[in-house]
Write a structure and sequence with these properties.
four-stranded antiparallel beta sheet; 23% strand; 312 residues; binds iron/sulfur cluster; 11 helices; binds adenosine-5'-triphosphate; binds magnesium ion; alpha/beta
């Protein structure tokens, strides 16, 4: 499955204002490749993922295109614009079957009053999976006894595996993983990333949303950096981590504990009150007159002064 997103914008109507949650996002996710979408809390990552799945509330307006093209041998023939198909089609044909969601907090995503086995079996039944619940559980390293537990009896790592098994029940070609490692300790984060990599290496396209750059670096082929609803840098993971060109991307990398460990100074703007030009300008040490106009994305970076980035 291949995803081509172009010009995706999301606006929320709230009393007396408009939240510009995502603006003109353009990116691709290819089969067998993992794109990590990174950025500070509130920059629009989850809204973007929910827009792709048709899961936004009624006060949202979504524009743009998100073309999902099936790969050979998938049984599907037509490309689907996720932003244009009716909700019933998204529910019947797309969610779980073409696009799987690995949720942010697996333990709370699972229904508390039913065992892991019952929930996995239901997903298998509803999605007409070619694999049994037992086979899926085994695939993710769950023992039969684990499946008989209720969600509150599962450790964070086990709940994660159950959520992965459910997300994979319909064998979707595109996986969206929104902060799949929240609350896990480092070894479990690494295990979860390695599983995601395996799923990707089997030919699936993976969009990983995270604020954990170390996790992103472990699994991603490409990294997209988001700031105040816009993608500001996108490129091969190694390049973005080692030679970031956007001042904000450089700041995020330098903020990592294993790097300079210097936080990006200041706070992001309110999405109801974005500055007129480059939204990063109030925090940027490189700001110049040109930055009064929003920079276009060119060669994977949206900054008038890309290449002049000073590192901490
Ligand atoms: N239904 C809604 N109505 C109004 N604003 C919303 C709604 N849902 C989200 N937002 C706003 O959209 C912005 C982006 O939120 P989003 O959840 O995508 O952030 P995020 O990047 O996923 O953050 P985090 O890393 O904390 O998960 C936030 O300012 C949020 O308050
Ligand atoms: S466009 Fe200007 S303000 Fe924005 S990141 Fe680049 S140098 Fe900084
Ligand atoms: Mg989020």
């Amino acid at each position: 499955m291949k995803l081509d997103v172009s010009g995706l914008s999301v606006r929320f109507r709230v009393p007396g204002a408009e939240v510009r949650a995502v603006t003109e996002a353009t990116f691709q996710v290819r089969p067998g490749r993992c794109l990590a979408l990174v950025g500070e809390s509130g920059c629009g990552k989850s809204v973007l993922a929910h827009a792709l799945l048709g899961l936004l509330p009624g006060n949202a307006t979504v524009t743009g295109r998100a073309l999902l093209s099936p790969g050979p041998g998938s049984g599907e023939t037509e490309a689907v614009d996720l932003l244009a198909v009716p909700p019933a089609v998204l529910a019947r044909r797309v969610r779980g079957r073409m696009v799987g969601l690995i949720p942010q907090s697996p333990a709370t995503h699972l229904t508390p009053v039913r065992t892991a086995r019952a929930q996995l079996a239901e997903a298998v039944r509803e999605l007409g999976s070619s694999r049994t619940a037992g086979e899926l559980a085994e695939r993710f390293g769950l023992r039969p006894a684990d499946l008989d537990r209720y969600p509150h009896e599962l450790s964070g790592g086990m709940a994660q595996r159950v959520a992965n098994a459910i997300a994979l029940a319909g064998d979707p070609g595109l996986l969206l993983a929104d902060e799949p490692t929240t609350g896990l300790d480092r070894p479990l984060v690494e295990r979860a990333m390695d599983v995601l990599r395996e799923l990707c290496d089997e030919g699936r396209a993976v969009l990983l949303i995270t604020h954990d750059l170390r996790a992103a670096e472990r699994v991603a082929d490409d990294i997209a950096v988001m700031y105040a609803g816009r993608l500001v840098e996108i490129g091969p993971a190694e390049q973005v981590m080692e030679r970031p060109r956007h001042p904000y991307a450089a700041g995020l990398v330098d903020a990592q504990p294993d790097r300079a460990f210097v936080p990006v100074p200041g706070l992001p703007p309110e999405l109801t009150d974005l500055p007129g030009g480059c939204a990063f300008a109030p925090r940027c040490s490189r700001v110049a007159d040109a930055c009064r106009t929003v920079p276009a994305m060119e060669d994977g970076v949206a900054c008038w002064r890309a290449g002049h980035v000073a590192r901490a």
